[in-house]
Amino acid sequence: MKSFETNKIKQKAYEFGADLVGIGNIERWAKCPELMSPKGILPSAKSVVVCGLRHTDAMVECSCEDNPHDHGSYASQCIMNFHLDRISFDIARELENMGYNAVPIAASNIWRYKKYKSLGNAFCPDMSNIYSPVAAGLAEMGYHGLAMTPEFGPRNRFVSIVTDAILEPTVLMPGKTLCDNCGLCRRNCPTGALVKELNGMTALE
Fold first, then answer.
1. Burial 24-48 (b: 16+ CB within 10 A, else e)
2. What are phi and psi of 88, to 5 degrees?
3. How far apart are CA 40 and CA 146, in angstroms?
4. How confident is the model at residue 119, as a pLDDT?
5. What is the pLDDT of residue 68?
6. Rounded average pLDDT per 10-residue block, the chain, 205 residues
7. Exposed, middle or buried: residue 199 (CB in 10 Å: 0-12, 13-18, 19+)?
8. How far is Cα 140 from Cα 66, in angstroms, rounded to an integer?
9. Which letter does DSSP use for residue 175 in this model?
10. 153, 113, 128: which is closest to 38 by C-alpha?
């Protein structure tokens, strides 16, 4: 039954337009701060479904070039966010039609701008859609802090659906296979974010 439901949800996600679909069992979020975790959103959570869309290559590569039609890659990301939000909503509906609870997480713009309860950081998401694809076996973290996939590198955006359905988790990627810490991102970042803001390395558990 678990395999049937897992395959059905994945198939539906692809039908709704996802390029990538993975699933993480709730134990993979065990070390998250409670208020930024799936269980902080749905206490009965057992699984997280993660769906991804790829950026078009030209949208990224031409965004730094002068163009009479230039609206920047971020404008296109707003369209991607809308599409991802629709996918997450439709997947949540599918799960509820199967008899489970499900909460679709917004693709972006879900940040808390003020301190909240025990959270010391005033600028944090309800749940990270950057870490979720790693926990769902779709991606690895790059030196630049982006989730990198074998299919599209860092040119992805993701959305998550928290559910109390027990689904089969996707096998985790082995780690250290997509980013070799070459430093190109650090040397070429136009804002200098990886020089001015980076202070050492951290590991994602």
1. bbbebbeebeebbbbbbbbeebbbb
2. -65, -40
3. 23
4. 77
5. 54
6. 90 98 97 90 97 86 61 71 96 97 87 74 81 96 92 94 98 90 85 76 73
7. exposed
8. 32
9. S
10. 128
